[in-house]
């Protein structure tokens, strides 16, 4: 598995997203549990979840799956909802997440999206749980450039390690200002939903992608994932609910593009030349 530098350490080029996992029947949950275990046994070193995913069912599934694994061999990201962004509520949310995950700590704890709680209070809460050893580092999610700049100017704000935003070939807005800013400020980026969404509602598959996938003898979805991680400068977290799907995603990390192929994709899915509103799923 290809490695990248993420959260100031070597990490697999793709993590495993777990949105909507753990919410099915016993057979489906067992298949997803085995998928998580296969990922950890075969080079995937990061799991991404959140307290709102199935009201904690995703975290519960991960907690069952990671039993017997060396916890220091992989990272877990979880996220707290904006209505839990005060120090008191955040601590309670974190305690509940850790209980469901059956772990003593999180590698990264993220504010899922910005709400009404002042960022100063949220930073204070994150500093407190970090000092107590409940989390190693913290970050944010669905932050636009103005949010990141505001955060960085607050006391302790420069300690933010990660921002997690939507990123795929049809949603390239972060390339204009967010990704360059994060590189300059040594903040890692997680790109979520490399396929648009579960049903492809946020990404139109144009003929150029189908033709190129056929030429490379890969699926369109493998091509989409390979494109997202092409520059080795961010982590993508595709969801995989089966071992078969996971194997396909892992194989996508070996796909390379020529300059002409990237230019062809750019012609149909243009890179941004101005600031656009941050897209969120």
CATH topology tier name: TIM Barrel
**Which stretches are poorly predicted, pLDDT < 50 over at least 5 residues?**
none
> Major β-sheet, in short?
8 strands, parallel
* Shape estimate: globular
- Helical residue percent? 25-40%
Continuous helix count:
10
Name of the CATH first level: Alpha Beta
Q: How many discrete domains?
A: 1
End-to-end separation in angstroms reads 28 Å
The CATH architecture name reads: Alpha-Beta Barrel
Average pLDDT level: 96
Number of strands: 10
Listing every helix as H and every strand as E from the N terminus to the C terminus, the arrangement reads: EEEHEHEHEHEHEHEHHEHH
User: Strand percentage, roughly?
Assistant: 15-25%
Class computed from helices, strands and strand pairing: alpha/beta
Any idea what the CATH superfamily is called? NADP-dependent oxidoreductase domain
How is the largest sheet built, in terms of strand order?
Answer: 3-4-5-6-7-8-9-10
CA radius of gyration is: 18 Å
Summarize the helices and strands and which ones pair or pack.
Layout (H helix, E strand, L loop, with lengths): L2 E4 L2 E4 L3 E2 L8 H16 L4 E3 L8 H9 L9 E6 L6 H15 L4 E6 L7 H13 L3 E7 L3 H8 L9 E5 L11 H7 L3 E5 L14 H10 L3 H9 L6 E2 L6 H9 L7 H10 L13
Parallel strand pairs: 3-4, 4-5, 5-6, 6-7, 7-8, 8-9, 9-10
Antiparallel strand pairs: 1-2
